[in-house]
Design goal:
This protein is 68% helix and 0% strand. It is mainly alpha-helical and 313 residues long. The longest helix is centred in the C-terminal third of the chain and has 33 residues, at 208-240.
């Protein structure tokens, strides 16, 4: 089990992602934020590889898997979070990101990778979806249904797919953790560069806050945490890392309120509690089955964790 200190550090790093994105959007477009974030993260991990004397993967087949993971775990969700947070508060973004494990279970059920799911886990999925509906409140004019919130949910679903894919094709396959993480962010940088014509060529407002925010986002909330993500997945599996995922929305909501003055309604807070209850239930397994053996990945064979637990937001 990961120590309380490690849980706290990871929760703070990952949970603050949404705060830094919000601040960075004050001077950069979503595509620009994504590009700088990936590039700085890749730079940090590239330097770490240099000091550790590790080389980037060379196998062509492995790079194919890295490209897929880079798109669904980095380039796409990072851009979707930027797009979503143009109209959604950072705290709510963190709450919606917490639905990633629910998407993971749903993917497992649809693809039949999750065979004979325990009734408690299915109940957790339904409870989590109910909590998400409570947050969106489509029956109220003050509800959060909109393209921004839907983009963030899509990002969470993208993480879920990516974590499952990474668990099957990347983690535990013999490649060093550090070089894998560096290669994936490098690939994500290249993929995002291709998207520059779609909102990335506008002028950048050279203001201190957005620039510092995107630097912190790239170096700490992406580079450092992405490496730690791989390490936790490889060393302890997604189940033991789940505690971090439960803290992420709490951290994001707290930072949004304290730093940005965001005001969440009681309904959204209640929805967050219901979502986290659903996530907890969705991770339950039969007592006789013992702890889940992560198919070596941001997850296990069927369930995964979130930006939260499997990757930064």
């Amino acid at each position: 089990m990961i120590s309380a200190g490690r849980i706290g550090v990871l929760a703070l790093l990952w949970g603050s992602t949404f705060l830094w994105i919000d601040l960075a959007l004050g001077g950069l477009t979503p595509v620009q934020v994504t590009l700088v974030r990936c590039a700085l993260g890749a730079l940090v991990l590239g330097v770490a590889c240099r000091f550790a004397r590790q080389r980037l993967p060379r196998e062509r087949a492995l790079w194919g898997h890295i490209l897929v993971a880079a798109f669904f775990c980095n380039a796409l969700p990072f851009a979707l979070f930027g797009i979503g947070q143009q109209s959604v508060d950072s705290g709510l973004a963190g709450v919606l990101n917490a639905t990633t494990p629910l998407w993971s279970l749903l993917i497992g059920l649809v693809t039949r990778a999750e065979r004979r799911p325990h009734a408690i886990r299915v109940t957790g999925l339904l409870v989590g979806l109910a909590g998400t509906a409570l947050i969106f409140a489509p029956w109220q004019r003050s509800g959060h249904v909109g393209w921004g919130a839907l983009a963030i949910l899509a990002a969470a679903a993208s993480y879920a797919f990516a974590f499952t894919y990474m668990g099957r094709h990347l983690v535990g396959k013999g490649a060093p953790t550090l070089s894998l993480a560096a290669a994936q962010l490098l690939a994500a940088t290249g993929l995002t560069t291709l998207a520059l014509p779609f909102g990335g060529l506008t002028g950048v407002r050279l203001q201190p806050v957005p620039l510092v925010a995107v630097a912190v986002l790239g170096v700490f909330a992406t580079g450092v945490t992405f490496y730690l993500t791989y390490r936790i997945i490889a060393d302890e599996g997604a189940t033991n890392a789940a505690t971090v995922g439960y803290l992420l929305p709490v951290v994001s909501v707290a930072l949004g309120a304290l730093v940005l003055g965001e005001d969440l309604s009681p309904r959204v807070i209640a929805g967050m509690a219901v979502v986290l209850l659903g996530v907890a239930l969705s991770r339950r397994r039969k007592a006789e089955g013992g702890p889940a053996v992560a198919a070596r990945g941001p997850l296990r064979r069927t369930t995964v964790t979130s930006e939260g637990e499997g990757a930064p937001g």
